[in-house]
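Subject: Thiamine-phosphate synthase

B.,
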Amino acid sequence: MDLSLYLILDPSRCLHPPLEVATAAARGGISLIQLRDKRGDEQACFALAQALKQRLDDFNLPLIINDSVAIAQAAKAAGVHLGQGDGDLAHARATLGPHAIIGRTAPNAAALQADELLYADYVGHGPVYATATKQNHLPPIGWAGATAGVALSHKPVVLIGGLGLADVNHVYRTGAQGMAVASAICSANDPAAVTSQFHQAWLAAMQSAPRSA
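Prediction pasted inline below.
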């Protein structure tokens, strides 16, 4: 499971059709894609999930579905990501099986150490910055909070919330396993080129940036 460059694919934020954005990101070096479709049309979300699954299989890339265990199961996605209060992790694990990738949003210390994370593979921690892609988000944790959260977590951490290309080194230094990117790629005119820039920046960070223990 490579969490280093984690695309949150939000159709409402995509400059190009979501399937094209996902394909371009795959070509650019994305490591995992989460479909977060908040338009409220489950059938449209399922159809897009099916198309994405078929396309991403060509790149051997996992597709994660946001919030819906049912769509993840029906589309034969690699797994599901559940926000706080958006579903039971034990149920998700029992439904999707032992090999599914299951993530949980963990915005604070209590969530990072919750017993339910026994059933999760990773956590999304943040927001590091305020972000326009999610309404009513919690107050930003900043880099000190991000570093503390990574140190506290017993699960791999993906940092979330308003992150861009300039933040890659900061993310790597916290000890996080990866960073979630939404608007920076979804809204790009050339998502393949932007993804490649992120990918190269992460590789460079691995070579040069000191990492928290």
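The longest strand covers residues 5-9.

T.
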